[in-house]
Amino acid sequence: MKPDLLKRFLVELPSQMRAAHPTEVEYLIYRTLYYAASDEGEHLSLLFPHISDDEIAELNGYSFEIGSYDKKPFYNVKSSGSSYSHPKGKACARRMKKDEPIYRCEQCGYDDTCVLCVHCFNRYDHVDHNVSVSVSNGGSGICDCGDPEAFKPLNCRCQSQSNPSIDLSELESSLSETIKICLDYILDVTNFAIQTLPSVHDMMNDSRVNLSPEIVSEFSSLPSELYGGVQDSNFKDEWFLVLWNDERHNSTEAKNAIKSGIGGSESKLEDLTHEIDSKGRCIIQESKSVSRLIKTKDKVERGGLIATIVSSRDYARDNIVEHLISWLVDIVQFTSNSSFSELSKSILAELLLEPGHQLSKPLPRSLFNRVAHGLDELCFVSGLVLDNEFPNMGLCEVKRPFEAGDLENRANFVLQPKSDLNFISKSRLQYFLLFEIRLTKSTRRKLSSIFLQPIVSDLDNKAIFANQFMEIFPSLFSMLAITDREEDLSSLHEVSVQILTCPTCVSQIYHNNQIGNILGPLSYIIEKYSSEWNDEAGFPNYIEPARFDSSSLAMKKAIMFGVDTAKKVTDKSFAGSSISGMLEKENFFLLLMFLRNFQGYWPLIRKYGTHVELESYDFRVHLEFSLKILEITKSVATYDLALDDEVNAVSLIMDHFELLPKQIDSKGRITFRVSKDPVSFINSINSLLSYILQAKGVTNFSTILSKIPFIYVSDFSLRSIVLGFQIKIGFWIRNGVSASRQSSLYFDPVFADHTYVRDFHLCQVGAIYDNPQETLLNFLHRWELLKWYENSESHDKTIYEDRFNSISEKFIIFLYNLITDRSCFLKTSAEERLFQQARLRISYSLCEEPRSYSDLRRHVGDEINSLEKFDDLLSELAEYQEPTGLTDTGLYRLRASKYEDLDSISLFLDSSKYQEVSETLIKNIAKNKGIPEDGVILTPKISTSGDEFVDKNIGQLVKSKEFAKLIYKYLQVAIDTSDETYLPQLLHLIHAVLKDDELLFGEKYLSEHFVNISITDLLLTIVESTMSKYVVSKADYLVDQLISKDSRIIENLIDSFGEEHIKSYKRKKTVETEVEKKKRLAEERKAKIMKKFAKKRDKFLQQNLESSAIHDSLNEKEEHSSSATLRTCVLCGETEATNGPFGILASVSEAATFWKVPEDRNRVKIGFTRWNEKKNDLSMEKVYGEGFNYSSFQSEFNNKMFRGNVFTTCGHGMHYACYSRPSQELSHFACPLCHNLHNKFIPSFISPSTGGGIDIAELSKAPINNKYNQILASSSSSKSRNIIEGLVHEDYIHSPDTDFTKFARVLVDNLTNIASDRRYLVGINNNEKYFNNLQNISVMIADTIRMNEIATRYEGEEAYSNFLKLIPNPSKILLRSLIQCRAVMYECRSSPLLLNSKYDLSFEVESFWNSGNLLDGVFNEVLSLYFQTDESLLTLGRLGMTKLLTVTLYSLISRHLGDPGFQFSLLEVRSSLEDSTKNSFISLMKLVSDPMGDWEIDYESLAEKFYFATEMLMLPFLRQLVILEDLITSEHISENTFQSLDKFENLDSEILLQERIEDITALTKVLGLPTLPELIDGLISQRFDFESKILEIVLAAKIPKYFDVGILALEYPGVVSLIDMVKDYNACVIDSNNSSPKAGYDKIVCLICGSRVKRSKGSQHLSECAVHTGVFFIPRLNLLRIITHIDHSPINVEISGPYLTVHGEVKKISKPGSASLNKYRYAAFNKLWLNQGLRSFVTRNIFSSRSEGNVMNVFVEEDDRMDEDMEGMDESSDEFDEETLPEDINNFLW
Ligand SMILES: [Zn+2]
Ligand SMILES: [Zn+2]
Ligand SMILES: [Zn+2]
Ligand SMILES: [Zn+2]
Ligand SMILES: [Zn+2]
Ligand SMILES: [Zn+2]
Hints:
Distance between the termini: 68 Å
Number of strands: 28
Bound molecules: zinc ion
């Protein structure tokens, strides 16, 4: 190729671009570059196979002109068939596009930052792994496939189908040349784009500097010798004023700025602002002269925005730069030819990393020679490169020599630039990074694509990149903090993620000695811009500027970035063994320089007087900074290092503390008052020291530690502890929320190990090394109790006033822990120590309460919960309890035997829970040992360290005389005030002291001080006091102990109390024990006898089950005539009465469970599966079972009815009078008791005094009419009265004050206007309307019964026999009430509010049955006729059974004729028919098929199949009939229960006794109906006259008449349920159907029909599925979504899904581990769906956020919350956030 021509083209392009449209420019540039890159078109067809020869011919020479172009540009015609792939052995590094899935795998990835893109993810690599998927927000994040540091070797999917690689070697040199020209041009041009840099911008506004737009612009012509010999001339008469975007101003401010400059219409201002926001800049004024523009510039810049004046050439060049970068992105992401994109990437990587780049025309220093001073500093923070020299001003190393004292100097005195950074790589990439901030917003967004993807896909390049990046890190970081106006766009974030999570790169940073490049500048920036000099301490402390403006926010963000960077390089998982470099002398010094900013920072000062006015939430600083800082200290200190380095490190720290200024009082104590002076919770250097001492064992440092009083160090820690406890007891109440939150963080499990435990450890170190007496006195001093101790203040006159007891309690606990808990000193391996600690932590966490797995993990902290053996340890210590409901979780409980190992005071326990914990311990220990609770004395648990020196010295302070005196004083106060606040803990402390002495000196030892100071006297006083039993018994125990240890004790007691007294005390003790013993023995004997007796009784009851049942029911019968059956109003608390309406709340909703036998064979098969058998075999390939989509059925076997309105209720009752007041005008009413939302009030009448039930004789009367049509046409004259007499209390009718109009009103309001899509008659006149109402209620009663029956089938095996008991009692009450209402509505129809006449509706009845209207199923018909006619239920049952048999057979045979294979989908035959039945059945089939015409049917072979299928199809009808008869015959025996007739009570066992459980014989018998064989035989032999007539008319008239409206539809005989789901959750996540690029990636699964739907299209799908309430599963997030309606507003509710971890917790993306389907949870959900309970569940949760409120998300339709799910898994504080952030469940809107 001819490089000069391309260069020329670029230089001359601006003159062509005036007034050109941007897309034309883009076209021209792309076309030219592809032309050049393909060796002047020579190889263009390799890249674009579709390009025509003409098109190539057009591209001749570089003389392209700008112009419009009508064809689609050739480079946009990508060849099809080939798809994305990347070469083997190289990382993919593809950037995820918005909405694409991002895959992570726990087993294959090294941590959760390792991700795969959709092209690389191969699901067969991850069978049985734990994969999670999140959705890309289009931000950073590139695929790590092929990176050996990210993933195990995988079979990348795109490689398995990769395209043939094309040989592009001929292209290489021209491509390389073109890319080089592009890169160099971009850098050369951007080199001059300096006007927006704040420092340069200021210079240009400063007249003394003499740097005008003209000068800058003139200078920036490209040198012709390097650019093809062409003159780059400026356009001197065309200048633009350009306004720039930044993140410190919003669009209104930008708009106002433009307005003040140039005015203009609102819409024009809007346009300009929009352009600034999207592109990053826009021209707001043009002029021939610069001076005119300067005036406007001054105006628009007043608000702080930046404007520049550039020539039109310069402006055009910036646009060219953008297009060049876009083109480079295009070739990097050249998806249609991966060989080409690979080649481009490797060329780019090489050119970018090539060292020693020279700009064609560097900016000369001379241009800025008028800048008075600090030019280098300005260059450094702006990325300004003068004379090709990179400014080296970063303070990266420590000036030598240095010493501890230097830690009290300012950073710029102590640190200096590194001389070797004068000679850095100077690669193109480094220029790019420094120049980045000069680019426009839209260009910046693209920039990282041209270097990240090419470079990081190769580990060697990545390492070179890391080195170059670190060389200029000081400058880049300073620019981010000070100069960058669009800091969020900075590619620094992305780059550091790539480099600092790569172990090779991180260890290289240590190896190249580049730690200082990070820590030095970071310390300096914090100190200079965001700190306050702490004069007392002698070093700076981080602060946040009071005014929270945008520039200080940017500074804060930059500092957070710096801290994150420091944290990453000290993260053991990346740094590995390199981290030991941190302890090297200079690095360690730098670390301390950094940490001092956080040593004692964020102090609190106690407020006096009024309460704080404005609550401050500044405690967040601890989440933003403290935690990370402390994690750094831990990470550095706990690596297994060489001791030498650590000794040096510790002595540096000790020297530092020695040199700190301190005020010492006359007694040699440090003067400090926590309640007056500033105290902080964060002592980062103390934490660092503590970690080092713990890791290596404190005795290794004894010489250094005893060099100075250790109190100089530990006092800082002590102050924080005292502060924490002072806040805890409410002493800092006036400091408000901030103080209390900070203190809870200090003790919070997540923080405590870094804060409280560290501080505590150092106090213990102090107790070991310092003088014991002095230590104790200093403790008292710091706790501000010394004056009381020294008797200069009385206990009620200390600063604590009435909180003296509370603070003393905390102080005693502190002392107790100090001597007993030596876990920080354990002389075992670090591993073993951690393990022991884990054991304790887990036990103590669980001893407070049982916890869920996550809660427990959070509670024990990260270090412990990440132990490999955590789960093993847990199962050793705790018992697991599985969840069983829809919202609960699995729980872990401490095993009873483990309580004995615990202490009631522990560092791990919340000190305020002492009382509860002690009681729990006592209870469990007593239970476990089988002794009475009184006999349990809790003993202190002293954990010895195994280090003799430590064990000997740590308790010294409690062996002093001063301590004995302290005990004495405390006991005295407690006795004087009779206050027990701290007494139990104090006694426990005394106990511990005795135990420690025992451990050191043996059983018999007693300290002299206990003899000399009469502590025993006081203890005895307590024993004889009226204090609580635990206190008394503990004191008693201690007195015993003391007496037994030293004989002088008893003498002292006698001296004090007199001999008589002591004798009687001793006697009382023994006597009392004997009495107690007797009592106990007596009680034990009694218990034994009772137990025996109970066993006997059980046995007796079992043997006499029936008789006892009779006995029980007799008992109850006696009662129920009184008020036992009366219900109580949940609103007023009064019982119901017959003088006014009482009722229950109910809802009408649409059930969609009335399925029919489907049309396709596969689904027919599922319908004919026995209920206790598995329907689907699911696996990784088939994740979901078959669904049901009835609305897709088309044939005559479909009656288009599978939904129906049904009633549901919570069963809670109330007076209508009470209900009507609050419910007025509301369409929905929430039950005050259970919060379920209802829309109906169903009157419910008291049952007759006998308990009610319709007489069985009444139900089995012979037919009145003999013919089907006569029955249909008859109206009732006596039925309603019979029903009322059987089910309604006689007082309603007999009592004189009963006025049925009261009831009529309620009935009209609630039952006569139910919206229904079924109109039975046109409904013009009143009679028709009333008929419609009655018919409607009948059908709804029938549907409600059916819905309940269908729901029971879900129980499988049990459902066959026990279905009556499976129907919930509220449903029974509801149905019975509805039946009462239906009867009353007819019987009382003459009421003016109802029909207003006695007319029997016979005309309407007849016209309805003659119309073409078909009811859904035979049961509905039977039930309707039951209310309508005077026929008995038995008659109607016979009618129904015959009709059903006829229709069923007809339907089966028709289906067989349509599809001979149909029979194979029917129920599998397992038993044979008796010959006689078989023959009759064959005759019947022939009879039924006769009207169908002449067909060859092999009846013989079909007979058994069809017989058993028919039987199964009749099952639902008979069950429904049984439910109905049971409802109207059972007796109301108490408020909510009914007693069935014996035959129904026994039905269960009758069914079980049958050979086949699905046999319908028992059902027909209980109903008094003929059995199926009897019926068939009766029909064939014509013995059953009534039935034969029915058969005849159904065949001859009914089937033809209703053929088209679906009379042949068959009720679904199988289990109706939501689709089955696969057991293993991972299979759902990697399900291939869920991530096809064409249909979108994020799918939800309809649980009814099984189809996959776009996530945002849920409610749209409802109409396809033809349901009103939709239920979906969101596989990726394991959520269930319910879409339902309240009135007409759709609401979406999401609840956690059915997949649970092995710990019984809901699987979430952020929760690791495998998960499987929890059958209880999914069953609970299924049942809610079947019982129409979903709505109640949803509403209940909306109305009572208290109960299960936080289990769900509620939102209104179709808002795009898609991206909000758990992204950002790289944040380790995930779990903590969940806890602290408020649940946002209150965003529910109507
Ligand atoms: Zn990939
Ligand atoms: Zn791949
Ligand atoms: Zn995997
Ligand atoms: Zn009431
Ligand atoms: Zn309720
Ligand atoms: Zn569906």
